[in-house]
Write a structure and sequence with these properties.
Belongs to the phosphoglycerate mutase family. BPG-dependent PGAM subfamily. Its EC number is 5.4.2.11. This is phosphoglycerate mutase (2,3-diphosphoglycerate-dependent). The chain has 8 helices and 6 strands, in the order E-H-H-E-H-E-H-H-H-E-H-H-E-E. It is α/β, with parallel strands linked by helices. It has a 6-stranded mixed sheet. Helix 6 crosses helix 7 and helix 7 runs antiparallel to helix 8. It starts with 28 loop residues before the first strand and ends in a 7-residue tail after the last strand.
Length: 248
């Protein structure tokens, strides 16, 4: 089921010319999808180290099926609910997720959205702690867990970025969306940290509220989160929706 057209995913070939009219209105509906299960997700859950470049980590077979399920969910939407623009993380697992979902739209003869890789939507960089499970972090970097515990959102791993850094780059994405007047419905395909801090920015959540959300559990692979624009900003419609996903 693997998509066979990802060779240009990092070079702008993933983009398409926009045919939507300017000044059509503000973004009314915003969807965010976390990529399907990746090989790194499986390794981390098994407390195993994976040696790989973050940008080239692929979907597992289950991750591919989750991406197809996202596509079928999109096919089920009414025309006035379908995204007109897709913004995708540059990481391969996110690009594969969108391409498999797009194949479902294409097969159903649904109108395809414009799509664009946004470099600001990459996953949080963990620097030297990249792909290390908690036990390995404690073994190799014994001082780091305590540093993170003291400031979970502001902590920067060696050579990496903090969650506040993630939020800062996402503010630029949200600012662009608020100024968007070609596409009224936008889908973001990215990562759990991106979904979490989109919630903070769009819903004006405090750091305390964000930490509480993270404690309850981050958005799952292939899950859907959505917001509706209101007079006061954006209101959450769904968070971490998984009812469309295969069980195994």
């Amino acid at each position: 089921m693997r998509t066979d057209d990802v060779s240009g995913w990092g070079r702008g070939e993933f983009e398409m010319t926009c045919s939507h009219m300017d000044n059509s209105g503000s973004v009314d509906l915003l969807y965010a999808v976390r990529h399907g299960q990746s090989t790194a997700n499986v390794a981390f859950a098994a407390d195993e180290l994976i040696e790989s470049d973050d940008m080239t980590i692929e979907l597992t077979e289950l991750g591919e099926r989750q991406a197809v399920a996202v596509g079928r969910w999109l096919v089920s939407l009414e025309a006035d609910q379908l995204p007109e623009l897709v913004l995708c993380s540059p990481y391969l697992r996110a690009v594969q997720t969108w391409q498999l979902a797009e194949q479902e739209l294409r097969a159903a003869n649904r109108t395809l959205p414009c799509h664009h890789i946004d470099q600001r939507l990459y996953d949080r960089s963990r620097g030297q702690l990249k792909h290390l499970p908690p036990a390995a972090v404690r073994d190799r970097f014994p001082d780091e867990p305590a540093k993170e515990a003291r400031d979970p959102l502001g902590y920067r791993p060696p050579g990496g970025e903090s969650f506040k850094d993630v939020a800062e780059r996402l503010r630029g994405v949200v600012s662009d969306l608020r100024a968007e007047h070609r596409h009224r419905r936008v889908l973001i395909v990215a990562h759990d940290a991106v979904v979490l801090f989109l919630r903070q920015i769009l819903e004006n959540l405090t750091d305390t509220a964000v930490l509480a959300l993270a404690e309850e559990g981050l958005a799952g692979n292939g899950s859907i989160t959505s917001w509706q624009r209101t007079a006061d900003g954006y209101q959450l419609l769904t968070y971490d929706q998984r009812t469309h996903l295969p069980e195994t």
